Structures are given as structure tokens and as C-alpha cells.
TrEMBL record:
Keywords: Hydrolase. This is Acylphosphatase-2. Residues 13-66 form the Acylphosphatase-like domain. Coiled coil: none annotated. It is an enzyme of class 3 (hydrolase). It comes from the Eukaryota. PROSITE patterns: ACYLPHOSPHATASE_2, ACYLPHOSPHATASE_3. Belongs to the acylphosphatase family. It comes from Mesitornis unicolor.
Length: 66
């Protein structure tokens, strides 16, 4: 068991896609900023269909906060 797992509990990985419009925000840019603040990792991209898709990984409580 890694030190990260021992220190913060279960790890979690979530795939997601966000639909709709977020006023005044770049979806992927906002997501990257929030992920850095929370200390989670993964990837995010804007799609040609106008959605934001990605994956987030980290301690369960922080992934849930995303």
C-alpha cells in the first residue's frame, strides 16, 4: 500500500463529460485550475461537440469535491 493511500484513504478515478454552457468560463481551463487547487490529476479537453470530457484521479474525498 502506498503512503498516499495510507494517508488519505481510498483512491478514485472518474471519467466524465459535461454538457451545456458555462457562462464566462472556458470549461477545460476552469477544470484544470480547480484540479490543481484540490491536488487531483487526470486530463480534460474540449470536444468538437461543444462538451468537456476528461478523467480525474486522486483521493476519494478530493475527486468527489471536483
Amino acid at each position: 500500500m502506498s503512503a498516499l493511500t495510507k494517508a488519505s484513504g481510498a483512491l478514485k478515478s472518474v471519467d466524465y463529460e459535461v454538457f451545456g454552457r458555462v457562462q464566462g468560463k472556458d470549461g477545460s481551463g476552469y477544470t484544470e485550475e480547480e484540479a490543481r487547487k484540490l491536488g487531483v490529476v487526470g486530463w480534460v479537453k474540449n470536444t468538437s461537440q461543444g462538451t468537456v470530457t476528461g478523467q480525474v484521479q486522486g483521493p476519494e474525498d478530493k475527486v468527489n469535491a471536483m
